[in-house]
Design a protein that fits this description.
This protein is mainly β. The chain has one domain: Porin (Beta Barrel), CATH 2.40.160.20. It is about 10% helix and about 60% strand. It has one helix and ten strands.
Length: about 160
C-alpha cells in the first residue's frame, strides 16, 4: 500500500510538472509573433506559471519609434473554455525618438516634443489558442498613461498572432 501511494504521488508530480504551462499551445512556454495596431511590431510571450505570463513587444507607435512594452498578465477562464481566455495586467512602455502624441495644458492643445517617452499601461485582452496548433491569436486594448516627457493618456489596441515552436 505504501509503495502504491508513493507511485501515485510520483505520477501526479510528473503530470503536474508537464502541465504547468498548459495555457500555452502544446504546453510550451515561449512564443513569438507579430502584432498590428498600436504598437505595430513583434511580440514575445513567456509563460512563467500556469496562468501568468510576461509579454515583451518591440515596435512603432505614436508614443515613439522604436517602442518597447513589458507587461505582466494574469489569464482567467471567463468563458469556461480551453480555447479562449481573458487576460489583464499592468505594464510599462518606453518610446524612443520623437512621438506624435498630444496633451492638454491650461486648455491649450500641445504636441509632444520629447525624444524619450515613459509610460505605464493597463492591458485587457482575449487570447484564442486553437486546438492542435502551435498558434495563439490575441486581441488586446488598454490605457497608456504617459509620464515623461509630458503627462497624457491614450488608448492602445492591437491584434496579433504568436507561434510556439
Amino acid at each position: 500500500m505504501k509503495k502504491l501511494f508513493v507511485l501515485m504521488v510520483c505520477a501526479f508530480l510528473s503530470y503536474a510538472s508537464h502541465s504547468s504551462y498548459a495555457q500555452s499551445p502544446y504546453g510550451r512556454n515561449v512564443g513569438f509573433g507579430i502584432m498590428v495596431g498600436d504598437p505595430v511590431g513583434v511580440t514575445l510571450k513567456y509563460w512563467n506559471q500556469h496562468e501568468n505570463a510576461f509579454v515583451f513587444d518591440l515596435g512603432s507607435s505614436y508614443f515613439g519609434s522604436p517602442r518597447i512594452d513589458v507587461d505582466y498578465l494574469w489569464h482567467f477562464d471567463a468563458f469556461r473554455s480551453d480555447i479562449a481566455k481573458l487576460y489583464a495586467g499592468p505594464g510599462m512602455a518606453l518610446g524612443f525618438g520623437k512621438g506624435s502624441s498630444f496633451y492638454y495644458s491650461n486648455g491649450i492643445l500641445y504636441g509632444s516634443t520629447g525624444t524619450t517617452g515613459l509610460g505605464v499601461r493597463g492591458v485587457f485582452g482575449v487570447n484564442i489558442i486553437p486546438r492542435d496548433t502551435p498558434l495563439e491569436i490575441f486581441f488586446e486594448a488598454g490605457l497608456l498613461v504617459g509620464l515623461s516627457p509630458d503627462f497624457g493618456s491614450a488608448v492602445d489596441a492591437a491584434l496579433g498572432l504568436r507561434f510556439y515552436p
